[in-house]
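In response to reviewer comment 3 from the previous cycle, which asked for concrete evidence that the modeling workflow produces usable outputs, we include below a single protein chain processed end to end. The sequence was submitted unchanged, and the resulting structure tokens are shown without manual editing.
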Amino acid sequence: MKKIFLVLTAALLTLSIFAQQGTIKGVIKDAETGETLIGANVLIKAGVGTVTDFNGEFTLQADPGEYNLTISYVGYEATKRKVKVIAGKTVTINVSLKTITLNEVQVVADVARSRETPVAFTNVLPAKIEEELGAQDIPMVLNSTPGVYATQQGGGDGDARITIRGFNQRNVAVMLDGIPVNDMENGWVYWSNWFGLDVVTRSIQVQRGLGASKLALPSVGGTMNIITKGIENKRNINIKQEVNSDG
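The workflow returned the following structure tokens.
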């Protein structure tokens, strides 16, 4: 009899406690797609909260009062919502989170800097590229760079070959914004795969000898790093005309 009495007392106390609390529930969605977010964090205060279920829904029990809910999710901007909880009542709050927009990141990895990097290097600026390159492959603009020799080989697009300090392309690391583009098997670079690269090239840095790169590259002869223009580059039209002697 005593056990039954204790169980009933505990049940009544539990019901009394819940009757004194209020309920907060809602749905968390992506602001652009409208899709529900699974596992979004909903905090009523530091260390107290819940996460959304497979339907993007959540439910919280709280004592009567005003709260600032903090809703967050990986890759989305966190937001706060003010809610008022009333005993025995349910407050519904639906939140749409915006994705975080990242700013432009300019890749400057493996670029030598004057008086900072003990590497012999030459920077080829945009003006030189625009004036001298024409419709040739990019290596051809480096012929006036110390220690560099470039040839067009067969004369067609993509046939260029570059030599630095006497080492051919197999021993020259060619990078695009710090990312190696040499063939993984033989270290060769096929310039025909990079047609139009000159249009988006900001500058070219040639490092003679073992360069500043921290990657395992075939750079015994040197390193050629092509830095491209960022997203600030505006749409434009370039017209080129070349005249040469035939025969």
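The helical segments are 2-20, 126-132. We consider this sufficient to address the reviewer's concern, and the full set will be provided in the supplementary archive.
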